[in-house]
Write a structure and sequence with these properties.
Blueprint (H helix, E strand, L loop, with lengths): L1 H11 L7 E4 L13 H8 L5 H12 L6 H13 L4 H13 L13 E6 L8 H9 L4 E5 L6 H4 L1 H28 L1
Parallel strand pairs: 1-2, 2-3
Helix pairs in contact: 2-3
Length: 182
């Protein structure tokens, strides 16, 4: 949902966005590639036992090679800020009805679209569709990574993010220098 919010913000307030990173997100609408049906069933099955539900999600959001210690660290962090069941259901409703597909060409900020190759919640085909529609967008698909690509492949994810951010900082610095030279 965070990528959807970032994308909507970039569309509504283009002058406030210098660059955009979209990680593991969807374009919404009819062209969006849906979650693996088994994953969708687990996503929709959240009940009052958060730990049990999260454990059922693990095969769908992490790569099989991800160390258990990292997954447990995520669980600890997520557990502290988990939304109520009612709020979670509202989030699912919002994600199901949102779409940006028809507006992606309007994004004018330099954009990195980054995604885990084995994401079963938001399949990587969504990243390709987004990157193809946003002018000049850069696409990075991280091998051996699922929806939680930052946990699955932290070095690859950090490298990709830092390279993009560094390029944007250089671009901003060059723009500022050009303005000062005038």
């Amino acid at each position: 949902m965070g990528g959807m919010i970032a994308l909507e913000f970039a569309l509504l307030y283009p002058k406030k966005v210098r660059s955009l990173i979209l990680g593991g997100t969807s374009l919404g609408g009819p062209r969006a590639v849906p979650a693996d049906p088994s994953a969708a069933k687990v996503i929709a099955s959240r009940d009052s036992n958060f730990d049990k539900w999260f454990s059922a999600l693990i095969p769908f959001i992490y790569d099989v090679g991800t160390p258990q210690q990292r997954i447990q660290e995520d669980l600890s962090a997520v557990h502290k800020s988990a939304a109520s069941k009612q709020a979670y259901e509202a989030q699912l409703q919002a994600m199901a009805t949102w779409e940006a597909d028809s507006r992606l060409a309007q994004v004018n900020a330099p954009t990195l679209v980054i995604h885990g190759e084995r994401d079963r919640i938001v399949p990587a085909e969504n990243a390709s569709l987004i990157a193809e529609a946003i002018p000049g967008a850069k696409l990075i698909i991280i091998p051996r990574a699922g929806h939680m690509f930052m946990t699955d492949q932290p070095e690859a994810a950090h490298t990709a993010l830092l390279e993009f951010l560094s390029a944007q900082a250089t671009r901003q610095s060059e723009r500022a220098s050009a303005v000062l030279e005038r």
